[in-house]
């Protein structure tokens, strides 16, 4: 019987594998940090979704597929890494200049 993949695994996979052991968010504002965290969560979800689809096609248990190996496959397939900084954000209490 396989163990379910709950939030402790998700946080470990994001911290250890997606972000690396020295993960530092680049944003200088809470809104930007929140945006970066959502980005990590979306990437994690996308990889897990791909793993689930592959497992279904191969008639396998998704928990038997390695997240680390799947991440390596995805990274090899991405030809251009995103080279832009997060969107400039301002603290919520500041108004936008016109």
What's the SSE pattern? Answer: HHH
Uncertain residue segments:
none
- Specify the biggest β-sheet: none
Helix content: 40-55%
What best-fitting shape do the alpha-carbon axes yield? elongated
pLDDT average, as an integer? 77
How far apart the termini lie comes to: 59 Å
Class by SSE composition: mainly alpha
Describe the structure.
This protein has 98 residues and is mainly alpha-helical. The protein has 3 helices and no strands. Helix 1 packs across helix 2. The mean pLDDT is 77.
Summarize the structure.
This protein is mainly α and 98 residues long.
Topology overview:
Layout: H1 7-18, H2 30-57, H3 67-77
List keywords for this structure.
single chain, mainly alpha, 0% strand, elongated, 98 residues
């Amino acid at each position: 019987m396989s163990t379910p993949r709950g939030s402790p695994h998700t946080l470990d996979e994001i911290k250890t594998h997606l972000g690396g052991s020295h993960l530092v968010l680049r944003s200088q504002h809470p809104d930007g940090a929140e945006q970066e965290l959502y980005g990590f969560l979306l990437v994690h979800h996308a990889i897990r979704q791909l793993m689930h689809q592959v497992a279904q096609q191969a008639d396998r248990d998704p928990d038997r597929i390695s997240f680390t190996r799947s991440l390596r496959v995805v990274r090899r397939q991405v030809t251009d890494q995103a080279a832009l900084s997060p969107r400039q954000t301002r603290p919520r209490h500041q108004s936008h200049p016109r």
